[in-house]
Amino acid sequence: MANKIIWVIDPAQSEITFKVKHMMISNVKGEFHTFSGKMEGEDFTTSKITANIDADSIFTNNQQRDTPFKKCRFLRCGKL
Predict the structure, then answer these.
(1) What does the pLDDT profile of the chain (80 residues) look like in tens digits?
(2) Which PANTHER family match (predicted)?
(3) pTM of the model
């Protein structure tokens, strides 16, 4: 049996970005500034991935648009 290995996401070398359709006309791009995560397992095929993303750290370059997301109005905050 191989040893369990833990890989940790380096926030300085990583980013979480998204792009979604807005009113079927344009796209909204954004990012989350605060997150962490790790992958644990003996190899990539049997690994378990855990990620934590702070909804309050959302940034779409529009504070009015960001505010409802920070209150988890649209995001399914919690454990998925």
Answers:
(1) 568 889 999 999 999 999 988 888 899 999 999 999 999 998 888 899 999 999 899 999 999 989 888 877 677 777 65
(2) PROTEIN YCEI
(3) 0.77
> Cα–Cα distance between 8 and 22 in angstroms, integer?
33
Q: Quick one: DSSP state of residue 52?
A: E
Extract the tokens encoding 26.
Answer: 């344009």
In this structure, the chain runs to a length of 80
How is residue 2 annotated by DSSP?
Answer: P
